[in-house]
Structures are given as structure tokens and as C-alpha cells.
Amino acid sequence: MSTYIFVFWIIFTLIVAAIASSKGRSGVVFFILSAILSPLFGFIILLIIGEDSDAKDKEKVNTGTHKKCPFCAEIIKAEALLCKHCGSSLVGSFSPNANETSNIHRQLQNAIYEKDVDKVSKIVHSGIDLNECQEAFSHLEYAELHGNEDIIRTIKFALD
Ligand SMILES: [Zn+2]
């Protein structure tokens, strides 16, 4: 008979410890408390003090599923692009590198349009890939439309 009581005591003690740790409380402390005083006592204490939300938040951040909003310091999902608490945007730019590359092609076409041979030459020789241009016209087409002899020659030379 006493063996049954002991087994149930241990099982309920483990359950209380598990609930405690799921609420951000120390499972070890509640295991000892419940084992010595009684699982029912441990469970009542747990109900009274409730969840440790700070500890739970810290755990969420540590596991990488959540992050802290830099604007309002609330805990939000790691994939969030907007904070659900304060509405702040958590992304500056979706792909800054792609933007920079398309900018340099736009700058080159502006320079062609302005017939600025120096600028065209500088951009062409900065190591960009002229074939990666996403503008409506290729650089050579654009040079033939708006550029001059020097610019066309510079572009053709870079394409060889
Ligand atoms: Zn926020």
C-alpha cells in the first residue's frame, strides 16, 4: 500500500515540476517542494505565484523563435516584419545589394544621357557587369540612342 502512495507521490511531484518549468519557474525547486511537503501543496503554490513571464520571454528569445522589438521592447515572433505591439517596421530594406546594383546601372544611363564621358568611363571601369543591366535598354543601345562616339566606344570596349 505504501508503495502505491510513494509512486503516486513521485508521479504528481514530477507533474508539478513539469508544469512549473513550462511556466518559467524552476522545475527543481518545485520538485523538491512537492516531494517534501506534497505535490498538492506545490501545485497550489504554483497557482498562487503563476507564470514568470520574464523568464518565459527570455527562453523564447534564447531558443530563437522570438525576438525583442527594438522600439517597444515587447517579445515578438522572430519572422515578424512588423511589430504587433507598436506597429514598427523591423526591416530597413528588403535587399539593399540588389538596389545598389540597379542604381549603378541607372547612374550609368544618366551619365550616357548627359554625355558625361568621364563618368561613363568611371562607372564602366568600376567592375560592374554591363550585361546585368535591368533598365529598359541595354547600355550599348542607350549609348547609341543618347551618347556620343566616345561613350559608344567605351561601352563597346567594356563589353568585349
Ligand atoms: Zn514594437
What can you tell me about this protein's structure?
This is Zinc-ribbon domain-containing protein. Keywords: Membrane, Transmembrane, Transmembrane helix. With 160 residues, the protein is mainly α. The chain folds into three domains: 51 residues; 41 residues, no CATH class; 64 residues. Helix content is 61%, strand content 4%. The protein has a two-stranded antiparallel sheet. Strand 1 and strand 2 form a beta hairpin. Helix 1 packs antiparallel against helix 2, helix 2 crosses helix 3 and helix 6 runs parallel beside helix 8. The longest helix has 21 residues. The termini are far apart. About 3% of the residues have low confidence. Zinc ion binds next to loops. The site of zinc ion (ZN) has 8 residues, from loops.
In order across it, which strands form the biggest sheet? 1-2
Bin the helical content: 55-70%
Give the end-to-end Cα distance, rounded to a whole number of Å: 93 Å
Small-molecule binders here are: zinc ion
- Total of domains: 3
Give Rg in angstroms. 33 Å
Main beta-sheet annotation: 2 strands, antiparallel
Shape assignment: rod-shaped
Structural class category: mainly alpha
Protein name: Zinc-ribbon domain-containing protein
Transmembrane segments: 30-50
Keywords: Membrane, Transmembrane, Transmembrane helix
Organism: Pseudobowmanella zhangzhouensis
